[in-house]
Amino acid sequence: MIRYEVLGQTAEILFDNPPVNALSEQMLDDYLAALQRAADDPDVRAVIVGSAVPGRFCAGLNLMAIHQGDHARVRHLLDRLYVRNVDTQFHMGKPTIAAVDGTARGGGMTLAVSCDMIVASESADFGYPEIDAGVPPSIHFSHLPRIVGRHRAFELLFTGRVFDASEAAAMGLVSRVAPAGQAMAA
Predict the structure, then answer these.
(1) For the packed helices 107-114 and 140-148, what is the interaxial angle rounded to 10 degrees?
(2) Sign of CA dihedral 105, 106, 111, 112
(3) By three-state DSSP, how is residue 61 classified?
(4) Higher-confidence position of 165 and 138
(5) Percentage of the residues of the chain whose pLDDT score is greater than 70
(6) Cβ atoms within 10 Å of 1's Cβ, excluding its own
(7) Average pLDDT over residues 124-151
């Protein structure tokens, strides 16, 4: 579900869980282990997080698992996504870049926003659809306003609407827009 490769001095961590790279407990554990592996490797100078699934960055968590899951297990899953991911990124000591080609939703937004920089292709789009399922993306209530401004952040979080790479760049969420399919290369 996670591919890890070092090319030169760059670690590439790719999500590979077709069809939409939905996050599972195992995928999150593997992702966090890959980040730690990159952090611990003195030869790695930067980390790029992307996808091996065409047209998909990450669909986020399976919302049915949240609604129907054991509360302790759900809390542990959210702890991995929100707390351990952000903590690992914070202590990385190396720049992390999300290369978003295609769809980033919910938990996929969390993984992208946790990186130091986001490069998106023209075909990328973003959104927080979990609000429609009654699961507010609470961690983004603090992170997103600092990136794109309070009013714009809450409009995105409360409506769940989808927005494209050019709008994401205009609001300051995305650092650079690359040609379609070229976020990793950029």
Answers:
(1) 50
(2) positive
(3) strand
(4) 165
(5) 93
(6) 18
(7) 84
> Higher-confidence residue: 73 or 159?
159
The two most distant CA atoms of the chain are separated, in Å, by 44
CA atoms within 13 A on the CB side of 75: 3
What is the pLDDT at residue 65?
62
Query: Residue 110 burial by CB count (10 A; 0-12/13-18/19+): exposed, middle or buried?
Result: buried
CB 81 within 8 A of CB 107: yes
Q: What is the mean pLDDT of residues 54-74?
A: 77
CB atoms within 10 A of CB 9: 12
Q: How far apart, in whole angstroms, are the C-alpha atoms of residue 119 and residue 143?
A: 18
13 contacts 4 by C-beta, under 8 angstroms: yes
Query: Which amino acid, one-letter code, is at 178?
Result: A
> Could you give the CA distance from residue 16 to residue 23 in angstroms, rounded to a whole number?
10
Element (H, E) at 104: strand 103-105
Spatial CA neighbour of 114 closest among 75, 140, 149: 140
Question: What rounded mean pLDDT belongs to the chain?
Answer: 91
